[in-house]
Every structure is written in structure tokens, then in C-alpha cells.
Amino acid sequence: MSEVAFQDCYPDELSHCYGCGKNNTAGHQLKSYWQSDNQNSQGLTIAHYTPEACYTAIPGFVYGGLLASLIDCHGTGSAAAVAFQQANRAMGTLPPLRFVTAALNVSYIAPTPMGAELELIGTFIEVKEKKVVVEITVSANNVICAKGTVIAVKMPDSMLNVKC
User: Fold this and answer.
1) Which of 61, 93, 114, 129 is the most buried (most CB within 10 A)?
2) Model's pTM, two decimal places?
């Protein structure tokens, strides 16, 4: 696994996302990585997250909206990482390559137990210059609890406030 999270490579001006922004202390602070040390091919991505009690749906189980949020942020972070890879650029170099969610589809497979570390695995389905499709599985205790598909599109210039 790489040592620096994808989200930690985002410019400060683009790091305020509730789900993954390093500058949002009230947020989830999700951190995504390449699953293996081989970052030269479109491999798998991985993230881990342990829900706090405030994300309870009913006692003992995680709120589904949290799972959707984690899938969303792991998907867009994975899209940014593969875009940098495809451009033969180091993550964090300017101009930024950031992606936003164009579509999110989540299927809940099994109840997600509270108190377990969640593992998110991202698999690339389609990679184009301005669009990346990532499938994400969320597991707890080695049981798949949710699956999601994120269609991520390159962030429009109108949203970028970064000066190169």
C-alpha cells in the first residue's frame, strides 16, 4: 500500500470535502490508497474506516447514508489517482486532477455491524480522460455489506480555485 493517501495530495483549496477533505475536521477524513505497492498499473484501491456511534441506524448497525458517503469519496479519490497515473504525473502536481460524482448507485447487501472496521475496495471499470467508473465494495468482518458504482467526472474548471 502506498504511504500517502490520495486525498492528502489534493491542493489545500480543494480539500474541504465532508467525506475525505483533510481540511474538514468535522468530516470523515477518509484516506484511500493503492492496494499494492505496484502503482504502475490500474490496480485496486483500498480504504479503511471505523464508524463512530453517531453513525448508528439502529443499535448495532451502521447508517446506510454513511456507507454511500464513503463509497462516493473512495470512488472520486480513486478516479483522481488513476487519472494522475494515466497522465504519467505524480499525485499532487499542478494543475490538479480532481473528480466529482456524476452518478452514484449503491446496493445494500447485508446489515453492516457497528464496531467493525470497514474495508472499501475499488475496481476500475472504465478509465477515460474526463470520466472514470469505479466499483466499490464495502466489507465488515470479511462480509460484503454494500456495493456501489461511482461515475466520476473531471472537476470543471469553474470549480477550481487553484492558481498554477
Assistant:
1) 114
2) 0.92
